[in-house]
Amino acid sequence: MAGSAVSPTVPSWGTVRETFESVNPATGEVLATYGIDGEREVALAVRRARSAAAWWGGLSYADRRLRLLAWKSHLTRYMGRLAQLVHDETGKPLDDATLEIVNTILHLDWAAKHARSVLKPRRVSTGIAMLNQSASVEYQPLGVVGVIGPWNYPVFTPMGSIGYALAAGNAVVFKPSELTTGVGQWLVQSFGEVLSEVFGDTEPVLQLVTGLGATGAELAKSGVNKLAFTGSAPTARKVLAAAAETLTPVLAECGGKDALLVAADADLDAAADAAAWGAMSNAGQTCVGVERVYVVESVYHAFLDKLSDRVSKLRPGDDASATYGPMTLPGQVDVVERHLADATARGGRALYGGLDSVRAPYVTPVVLVDVPEESAAQREETFGPVVTVTPVASLNDAVRLANASPYALGSSVFTKGRRAGLRAARALRSGMTSVNSVISFAAVPALPFGGSGESGFGRIHGADGLREFSRAKSITRQWMKPVVLTTSFRRTSDDMDRIVKLVTVLHGRLYQPKRRRG
Question: Does Cell membrane show up as a keyword for this record (predicted)?
């Protein structure tokens, strides 16, 4: 498998250490060789991170903001270099790699600038019964956060955890995918350079560990204060089992089977354009990519014509004019092929493309119709440039079918009716929905990102993302003597009479709903 060829090497201290290779998925060229970190190396990184976390968490919000914004500027200035590295390791077009970095920059900027306002101490009401107390809540850093990143968006996705965790005052140990280790190394080294060259800081606030799945398992059971994982649901279950050994909380983003809904009054050109891009960009290797489309019957055939026209113009390749790149993970080609075969065997047919679209490492676009809901192409994550299109009687039926999936990550609704769009968006079980666009929620830094069910749990991005990497601390302070004693062995029967009377007056009134006139 590309990116996981293992060989031994002999370091200067004489012990044999295994290595693996990072490979260009389009050409097979070996890009670099990295060492496989084991229990010893991961434990050392976490131990160093604990010391760094004490320093980093002790900085003021203003000081952390300065450092993160300086890193943001560095990423912006050297965007071209990073985009080329993303292209080399994933195969995605340079423009797509650049847009991924642009979104990362916007999120890092938001996290740095909003951490104080989101996490600073705030007063809360105590209520009449606790009038003698003042109360506040604040959000403290967790300490050390472990991040296990994916290969499909090797900058944007892990940085949704790294940037927000750093802004919240934590140190981070980052294990990138073995397929995109070079990108992970570049991110970690760039942050270290900014800290040392601009501010003179030497603490290892952001560290890298490299390796295959076993290295991720070591990080999961290393005792970090929280683990952020992005990957498949089966792998997430293994990560959760490993993290359970130390009761480490986990934030898991596990992919999706996102649906795009098209109402009878939708702008079909816009819907077809969104479906084509949402399904085929990045070779379909997008966790919030469009994999299912449900179209109201009256516009079904018109929509299919427009979608087919758009996908017919798409071409995968490694050259500058290619629409999208190869399948980054070679094994994913087999999944695509299995889903196409299963759909065909169950009576589905390819309106565009088909089994002959699979030409590893590339898969040309496939549009499937008449695919039963119980088929793998409708139920399982395909993670390739394949989309199913199904007619429905109404938008309500589309919502019902979309919600029948065990996944619940993102979704899209196309309709000209504002109320209808919001009503459908709220009814969809997914964690995020775009109305009259696709995947736009990911580009809004203030919005939380995440799902439920097989799509995982927890949130990155926005205020929820900052709080995800902090612990809530509640503080009360007695500023006057209590009117009645409750938490004391000196409490008397008079104290009890007073508190019962007070609660009865405040809460004992019989509730009678107001009747509407007319």
Answer: no
> What is the domain extent for residue 503?
482-507
Clarify whether residues 39 and 85 are in a common domain.
yes
Catalytic one among 21, 218, 253, 468? 253
Query: What six digits make up the tokens of 202?
Result: 């030497």
> In this structure, are 284 and 406 located in the same domain?
yes
Map tokens 């798409």 to a residue.
Answer: 314
Q: Do both 177 and 222 map to the same domain?
A: yes
Q: Which two tokens stand for residue 10?
A: 């002999």
pLDDT band at 483 (very low <50, low <70, confident <90, very high): confident
Core vs surface per residue 308-344: b (16+ CB within 10 A) or e: bebbeebebebeeebbbbbbbbbebbebbbebbebbb
In the block, tokens 């094994």 appear at 331
Dihedral angle sign, alpha carbons of residues 217, 180, 437, 115: positive
Does residue 112 sit in helix, strand or coil?
Answer: helix
Active site residue 291: no
| Active-site residue flag, 287 | yes
Taking the mean position of all CA atoms in its chain, how far away is CA 298? 36
> What are the tens digits of pLDDT across the range 37-87?
999 999 999 999 999 999 999 999 999 999 999 999 999 999 999 999 999
* Residue 155 DSSP one-character state: T
Residues 434 and 467 in one domain: no
pLDDT, one tens digit per residue, over 209-219 is 999 999 999 99
DSSP 30: E
Residue type, 496: M
| Cα gap 275→306, rounded to integer Å | 10
Burial status of residue 378 (CB atoms within 10 A of its CB: 0-12, 13-18, 19 or more):
buried
Of 287, 291, 380, 454, the active-site residue reads: 287
CA–CA–CA angle 35, 152, 178 (5° rounding): 10
Other beta carbons less than 10 A from residue 494's beta carbon? 10
Q: Which of 157, 159, 176, 198 is nearest to 73 (CA)?
A: 198
